[in-house]
Amino acid sequence: MRYSVLAKGAKRAPPVMCVAACELFGGNRLAAFPTACALEMVHAASLIHDDLPYMDDDPSRRGQPSNHTPAMPSSLSAFATLSPKHQSDLVPETRILRVIAEIARAVGSTGMAAGQFLDLEGGPNSVDFVQEKKFGEMGECSAVCGGILAGAGDDEIQRLRRYGRAVGVLYQVVDEVLEEKMKTKEGDDEKKKKGKSYVGLYGVEKALEVAEDLRAKAKGELDGFQKYGESVVPLYSFVDYAVDRGFSVGASS
Q1: Which Pfam families match (predicted)?
Q2: 133 close to 118: Cβ distance less than 8 angstroms
Q3: pLDDT digits (tens, 9 = 90+) for 199-222
């Protein structure tokens, strides 16, 4: 668990987004930390699943051997499946039921699990669904949990939901573009991932158009939080970070 959750090079995007969303509505970041830690565990478990031989079959993650490389795949699958279930011990008591329900929804049969299944079994037209479920759900859940912990209103929660989903997919699309450009630069086009992606289906140029649409959508949702002033800046920065991979709280556009 330490090897995966505390791995060097991890961006910690889900927990940071949760804390930023909590603080947007005046919540205490210390109250968000247990949930933020649980979200990072869920995220790590999802990456373990993605790297397994029957999925992307990636031998490395963040420059280090993937979890299944030094470990037996059978025990690894058990860890990846069980990790999300421990989060009920980590979230704060305040609004605990809503937070647990949100995380359970995100990882369950209508969320990330559905995305994993269709990534393997669905047709090429399922790419939108796969991307939203596998990657959008994590961003959505992270932002929404932060809002719930701070007592955000229903309309604000829905806006966070749309924002987080857009950022989650945006991050993945940009990852795919960067990976494709790196493979082209190095002349390595032999390995084809089994999963579905915008780059794999439409190519880099179309994927970049999708990324720009997602960036505009995410920032459009945040425009509804202007009344909170500078507290919304970190969430704006998340959008630019997804594209530019440089985090700054000094500007909101």
Answers
A1: polyprenyl_synt (PF00348)
A2: yes
A3: 888 888 899 999 999 999 999 999
**Under CATH, which number does the domain 2-241 receive?**
1.10.600.10
Cα–Cα distances in angstroms (integers) from residue 215 to residues 36, 121, 169, 221, 244, in the given order: 24, 29, 10, 10, 11
pTM of the complete model: 0.76
